[in-house]
Design brief:
Length: 320
């Protein structure tokens, strides 16, 4: 861990670090974020590893300008209005990914949507400008800890990690951003935060629903499933593929691997970080081959293995 005051020089150094796939904690007006290059699955996997999260929640991609947001996602008229009313600021919009959206599958947790925020904090803005790439950043706390509003909080949580912390003082808002699903014509607030529901309603001139968590049915317009699930059945902890199955390997391949209709490896060398980086793209690719099942090799539970197993278990249950 390396903590530095926010200066033009440290911001440039941090930008370079981000471009090289490293982690940088930086202030926004809501809370400190733990950032990595959103276009690199490998860099994004390092965020989950450092946070010690037992699951892969989709992350917010931060960009400096509306034009940048429009390169990542399609903004309908509701999204446009919200963007013009509240960006830059403590609002995140969940939007359909553009066709050539460069944000990694892991940052979006395999979803066809991407969460975007344009922060107002001058240090965050200077950093995003200097990097020139979207930066994925969850709140900079380890799993189970509260969101950090001062650089000291971040330093306490990541003392042993390879993280550069840019100290920009205390965060003004102190609450995370309000997350709004703006994929359809009827916006839904997914998480209340720095912007009040009344202000969202005022900007749109309609009343807006607040989603009630994971159990919320995806039936209502504008509400997409919050997790990716493949259409093909999964067979977990499989020692080898059976005839006609697709095979998702990890580590050394079993002899029967060639029987598979299609096969990919999460990590030939058995590296869980690499496996996490490849997980969603591999599931998507194997889902396309229309096998009757995707057999998945056992994945160890250490480090990011826990989150990988959690994700696979949910996908296998068909519970997205
Ligand atoms: O204020 C904030 O939002 C801070 C700063 C650093 O920007 N970030 C933050 O990130 O709080 P995090 O990862 O702790 O929370 C992101 C929220 C989660 O509730 C996640 O489920 C939701 O955004 N989210 C992200 N992408 C999504 C998507 N594609 N669909 C639905 N929800 C999404
Ligand atoms: Mg958080």
């Amino acid at each position: 861990m390396k903590r530095v005051p926010a200066t033009p020089a440290t911001i440039l150094e941090a930008a370079q670090r981000l471009r090289e796939g490293g982690l940088v904690a930086f202030p926004t007006e809501t809370v400190y974020g733990l950032g990595a290059d959103a276009t690199s699955s490998r860099a994004v996997a390092a965020i989950y590893a450092a946070k010690g999260r037992p699951s892969f929640n989709p992350l917010i991609s931060h960009v400096p300008h509306l034009e940048d947001a429009k390169r990542l996602a399609r903004l309908g008229h509701v999204a446009e209005r919200l963007a013009r009313a509240f960006w830059p600021g403590p609002m995140t919009l969940v939007l359909p990914r553009s066709v050539d959206c460069p944000v990694s599958d892991l940052a979006c947790a395999g979803l066809p949507t991407v969460a975007i925020r344009i922060p107002a904090h001058p240090v965050a803005r200077a950093l995003l400008e200097a990097v020139g790439r979207p930066i994925a950043a969850p709140s900079a706390n380890t799993s189970g800890h509260v969101s950090p509003t001062q650089a000291t909080h971040v330093a306490d949580d990541f003392a042993a990690d390879d993280v550069m912390i840019i100290d920009g003082g205390a965060c003004d808002v102190g609450l995370e951003s309000t997350v709004i699903d703006a994929t359809g014509d009827v916006p839904v607030i997914l998480r209340l935060g720095g912007i009040a529901r009344a202000d969202v309603e005022g900007a749109l001139g309609i009343s807006v629903r607040v989603a009630t968590g994971e159990a919320d049915t995806p039936a209502s317009p504008g509400m997409l499933a919050r997790h990716y699930a493949p259409r093909t059945a999964l067979r977990l902890e499989a020692p080898a593929p059976e005839d006609g199955e697709a095979w998702l390997g990890f580590g050394p391949e079993p002899e029967e691997a060639h029987l598979a209709r299609a096969r990919l490896s999460l990590s030939a060398t058995g590296d869980v970080l690499e496996a996490a980086a490849n997980l969603f793209a591999a599931l998507r690719a194997l889902d396309e081959v229309q096998a009757h099942a995707i057999a998945v090799a056992p994945i160890p539970r250490h480090g990011l293995g826990e989150a990988i197993n959690d994700r696979l278990r949910r996908a296998a249950l068909g519970r997205s």
